[in-house]
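User
Take a look at the entry that follows and flag anything odd:
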Amino acid sequence: MAPKFGTSGLRGLVTELTPDLVRAHVAAFLRACPLGSGLFVARDLRDSSPRIVADVIAAAHGIGVDVTDCGAVPTPALALAAMGAGAAAVMVTGSHIPADRNGLKFYTPTGEITKTDESAILAVLGQGGRDAASGALRKADAAGPYLQRYLRAFGPAALSGWRIGVWSQSAVGRDLLAQTLRALGAEVVEIGRSAQFIPIDTEGVGPDHRALLREAAVVGGLSAAVSTDGDRPLVVDEAGQIVAGDVLGQITAIFLGAEVVVTPVSSNTGVQAMGFPREIRTRIDSPHVIAGMEAAGQGRVVGYEANGGFLLGFDATGPGGSLPRLMTRDSLLPIVVPLIAAGEAGLGALVRGGPQRFTAADRLVGVATNTSAALIDRMRDNPHARAAILCAFGSEQALDLTDRLRVNFTSGRIVHLRPSGNVPEMRVYAEAESAAGAQALLETARETIRAALMTGDRA
């Protein structure tokens, strides 16, 4: 798949993210969008990221823009630093996609680029040559202020008595995550640090990694185990069970006193039973959540995704002090808050006390976008084909086309299908009345769709 640009950024194969391509997109961004005091840049730990950062800096200097290099830090830490300085930002990261790919995320001084910004960038892309200009290059610490944000809000004893495992893997925020948990009073045990980049999809953790985390939690006597891919959290309770990202989002929203919750259709429907005055459903991905939050107007508005990434749309207050708004997907807040909210009863008890609706997600890799789209479109338009393919799940109750194809069954279970926008994969989502039920439904749905793809959907 050729590099693709949109409001979620620019992503593609490293071999296709050439210096000229990167510089052209960065230059277009800098020419078309507000810059404020300059450009901040940071990166993840992929082998390709330092080279791409150099291309970003060269593009900025080519049109006379000063650059502040924040080094290797997670996306929300960069966003916090840049917005605090009134600057634009570019994050070099491929998030959870494979190591042979990478990408750029763009921020104006007010947050992630919008659809309007996207149109403006595309309008000037490729226009004008590289100017004979230059700019300053500075270094800045983005990790420290990010840690202090949570220490001020929750206090140094917030997680006292907690023994937490941090699955380091190759996450750019692994050390910062451990440092923050220690600053909040927790005992931290490191798990599985890797020198090689490992693409971890926190929304679709594989069986080997699930077993690793389960053993670490149970055998190691942990209160919880946590990880992140930068802006999306992964949390495992004391019994080694993964707590779904949308459950983390619900808990965090309740704890902070949110009045309006904005979340994609892929998030579980349990939020409807939690008493929020208003709930808004959107298409999947943070630009759509941000648009929904902005449309909601003023007030105590939050957003979260099924993957757990949390957006704080108002100035909140934690047990220790102020917690200013941060309109970008954050992984640390939905890790820290559920642990604090759980208290001595433990995270497992907190989850069992909430609405018993659970989601699971995975992907079929190596499926071209046009192939998955063709199958989904056929199922959408042909009820007989849809019923034949999904007959194992019972009778259909309702269809939701907000983001491709989401089928509600009379059993209360849900299956949702959509092509990935970043890589040749087909996304499969499932919702059921238990975590085990959602996982079983997901596995059956994945194999059912795999079979339909292999047979060319002759139903």
User: Anything to note?
Assistant: The chain is about 35% helix and 25% strand. The domain at 4-141 is CATH 3.40.120.10 (Alpha-D-Glucose-1,6-Bisphosphate; Chain A, domain 3).
